[in-house]
């Protein structure tokens, strides 16, 4: 059929429509639609996406086993649509008939990127690296690429933000681009990347998709500028207009990348899978569900439908499982976190599909006979990459040896950790996987400045508020429990700060939305549990704050790793209450360090006292608000329960016309009134400037110099101001800016306000901070 063989560049007659028959709803050419506001479906209603399809005719065909439903779709000969009938003929649709020459025709002057030259990457990849201004490979990329590109297995351990995604991503893309594409009805899975959390999986997918689409763009006839930051990668998040705009330019990537995570439409993800992808990024839970889900559909059909349908579904299941068995590359990103996320069982099940019989016998010799007549064997040439910022040295040694500890004389052996156990189940095809450990001693990234503050647990809110006001920027605050986030988020909002929550009990859509808001709002705050600790690559996070001490050294490292990425500066603050001291000591000792080596941040106590007042008021408002909410909730509950039981409630109860009702109404009014008073008080307090010690609000209005203007403008000649300028580096730096909300202080970086516990030992500390504050003469009258 000529339409199937049409060259993608040949102009298509968009007006002529063809009829294509599909046997299942999933195969229809669904398109994402933006949700119109008037449907009231644009909010946080738990619906992630809407899709529509035009021109569908539903027909029922009589078969021996009964009626079979078919869908006829009138559609333009769209090169992106996969025509089932053609696929069934064994001929590929036009869109997938890649030109084997295509990948070799692209050229790029490798001299433009001399540092990447030794790796002989495909020219399209070099071109994208050039467009992204990635002129130099990061250390982990330099070390891993030579092995990964020569088919070796690699275990890579490197600090957070050091470019591990491309350390395994580039070899995968290179491998796929290097193969001449055999015409086939569907792409078969080449690489599977397993990531512990949805956000991380989506991010890896973004990263690789942006690359793959830009690679495709480099092959278009007309050279075009591709703004990589704007390339939309998830079909699921595209809106209609965007999709059609991109279709002619960036769709049909040479390497197709898909993501499979919980919380997003499983049907859509399956549809994408069915069309065929080269690289799949998945969380183990959703991938295993998807593999299992087909089996249950298959069983359902066994009971309800005829045998033909039954075998059809069995084939589908086999295709997906077989694709995993046939993988060319398997990647475990943040392998250690998969265990924490409770994915052991799913991971184990998925890994079993990739494990060869000989390895299986080694892991579970008792299953030998059972497995011997199972499905076709896994691919002998699969490459395995394991990457993380934290893999213990012990674990690396075990991986290198590829052996389980031998039982001792008495038959006992040291029990394996869950992670050891899981990683030793990996069937590296390489007899000596290359282990590259570039993790920094003590786990601290060189561009990260760590700090701490000791305070009572009940005063953490005020200290946090102080830090956020004193050092504006994008701050990620980690809390150990969701309850803490629920309490803190409204509190910070009442204090006029932009705080967005991120935790596992939020809808996936809301999680992504909050992440986006955080990325787009200057000086915003993300209040997160440890689901945000790993892998998230949010540009320009200035501060990471551990509101509660993390439960392990690994979590500490990963949390810190959200700042100071890709050699940028970053700052972390550990908030430690007296009852957390012991945990902090243990945490640092497991990193081979002492907590006393971490400098403290200096705090202007006068300002802190003012802030405590604000926090106290905000808490009171929040409590009042909760009381009012609880009352409303109880009334609503009573009403709903009565309706459900078909009981008529005494109208007095609802209308508040009897004494009790009146009391409730009165109480509500009282609470609302109190809240309004407190809100007004807080508003007034927030509008008052915060004034550092030594600064007076009283000043002489007569005379030749407007002193107040000088203070606000960062100028001044008084003794106090000269000292103040010196202390805050104002004097020597004409660009130095006075703090907007804290009068009398310069707007400094948190790095310059540190004081070491071991003052003499720590060279990084600004010794000027040790000046006795009592010496400040002030300019008050
Ligand atoms: N060669 C390079 N040159 C410049 N920037 C790079 C390079 N490689 C990657 N990056 C950028 O560095 C940032 C961090 O990369 P990536 O997310 O891969 O780090 P990571 O090591 O996986 O971090 P984590 O351990 O926290 O997951 C990304 O924004 C990425 O685009």
From TrEMBL:
Q: Write out the GO MF terms.
A: ATP binding; hydrolase activity; RNA binding; RNA helicase activity
What is its EC class?
hydrolase
Keyword Phosphoprotein attached: no
Q: Which Pfam families match?
A: DEAD, Helicase_C
Q: Which residues form the DEAD-box RNA helicase Q domain?
A: 114-142
Q: Specify whether Nuclease is a keyword of the entry.
A: no
List every stretch annotated Disordered. Answer: 1-20, 83-104, 362-383, 396-417, 761-781
Domain (Helicase C-terminal) ranges: 463-609
For this chain's UniProt record, which GO biological process terms are given?
Answer: gene expression; ribosome biogenesis
Per the record, its GO cellular-component terms are:
cytosol; nucleus
Basic residues: which segments have biased composition?
398-407
Q: Start and end of every Helicase ATP-binding domain?
A: 145-409
Give the UniProt keywords, A-Z.
ATP-binding, Helicase, Hydrolase, Nucleotide-binding, Nucleus, Ribosome biogenesis, RNA-binding
Q: Which reaction does it catalyse?
A: ATP + H2O = ADP + phosphate + H(+)
Gene3D superfamilies cross-referenced by the UniProt entry:
P-loop containing nucleotide triphosphate hydrolases
Q: Which family does it belong to?
A: Belongs to the DEAD box helicase family.
Question: Which protein are we looking at?
Answer: RNA helicase
